[in-house]
Amino acid sequence: MRILALSIGPIGPDIASGGATKCLLDLGMALSKRGHRIDILGPQRSNLARSNELNRNLAIHAVLPYRPSFPGAYDIPPYQHVRLVQELERFQRNVDLIYVHDAGFLYQEWFRGDVPLIVSLRDLLYQETIFGAMSFRRDLMVVNSSYLHDCVMASIGNVCSEMGYRMRIIENGIDWTIFRKGVVDKRLDTLISRKSLKFPILLHPHRPDPRKGLPFVLEVLQKLRRMKGFESVTILIPKHSPDGQFHIQEIPTELRDHVVAHPWLPRSIMPAYYGLGDATLCLGEFVEAFGSNVVLESLACGVPVIQTKVAAHRNTLPDGLTTRCDPGDVDGAVEAIVVTISQGSHSESDWREALSKQFSLERMIDSYESLFMNAKVLPPIRINQFPDTSRNDTLLRLAPWCFTVNGRVYHDYLGTWSENPLTERIAALLGRQSLMREDIKSTGIENESIDQLIEEGYLVIDYGSGYCRNLQLSG
What we know:
Elements: E1 2-7, E2 11-12, E3 15-16, H1 19-33, E4 37-43, E5 51-55, E6 58-64, H2 78-91, E7 97-101, E8 117-121, H3 127-135, E9 140-143, H4 146-155, H5 163-166, E10 167-169, H6 187-191, E11 201-203, H7 214-224, E12 234-238, E13 259-262, H8 270-274, E14 279-282, H9 293-300, E15 305-308, E16 323-325, H10 330-343, H11 352-358, H12 361-374, E17 395-398, E18 402-405, E19 408-411, E20 416-417, H13 421-430, E21 435-436, H14 437-441, H15 447-455, E22 459-461, H16 466-469
Parallel strand pairs: 1-4, 1-7, 4-6, 7-8, 8-9, 9-10, 11-12, 11-14, 12-13, 14-15, 15-16
Antiparallel strand pairs: 2-3, 5-6, 17-21, 17-22, 18-19, 19-20
Helix pairs in contact: 1-12, 7-10
């Protein structure tokens, strides 16, 4: 099968700008070894060859004239937008299927209409991916978690109810033979000075985008270093993102002996990198669609994880495998780190076999290959009338991007805990169920208040996700 794949993120043989491009590289490599021809179009970059043949069936072409940073990739002159379409036209002439990774290619009307088009949504946060999802009218959409599925249905699905029939859930997978305990890589010694590392060692292997949690981690570090046994704690942090858009800001003077900044590491070094740590931190407020490949990779390497209960981090993995803390709770994060390191990692016999099956690279590849091989050109998705939320029989529920704890309501997209007592009252009333507007009103809550919570994204129409779950492919 001849497949054309498109990536909005920089991609190369050992270059991945994040979890999304890692998955695309793994997918391309595996499918090419199974006899499929894969051509990946990615952004042009000065450090990437224009065309790079990785094997006889896989090539990466860094030819798309996107702006060097992401988001904002489309902040380019009009003639470069035309070039994007021209490159697409050049490469799509002799293919059997087109696959848009991360939904970032916005000109979907320029794709061939006589071959299947599959769009993979890796987040519902960046403007490029939201626009790509809003523009989707074609054949199939892949999402990588039930959380992302529910977010799509609670927003775009309100006006494109057929979207539910076109979506398939394929969870991310990693190679558990590569990510394992005890990996040694001499290249790591040239990038990180082991002499500067004092125990315990914490890892923060995320780009220094504030939403990925670095400012919060530094707050945690301020308190953690005063705890007994953590006076010399060290945290490893990348100096910059792979595209150079994000850099570490000034580290407070009193923390400089505790922070070791290092270059962005090639993905092939990561198993050895995880092996340096006593725990990995995922404490950002970024609206993760999957719950982070970092969590899986770290666990696979035997390093425990402390993560914030934000977005897909709340439910991608079974309870108990990681330590979860509430967003913005510095004291809770400090306690979680202290307890986790004092207890050490979980016994692998308890979880590794089950987890490595559910989130295996092979299972992910099998699911994609089956989807690609059976894909067909379908009629365009129809747009519904906008739903009338003012009707008394409108069924409402708490939005999937909101969660409650001890009566408080957190909103993933706003990144805040609600301070409106009415929000907490409705959340307590609804729980995980849905109620008609008239039933909510019968408790004394006025129409205007209900409308306000709909506008703020706390309440959504119940999209009836059950009607399409039996159609989803999860491997």
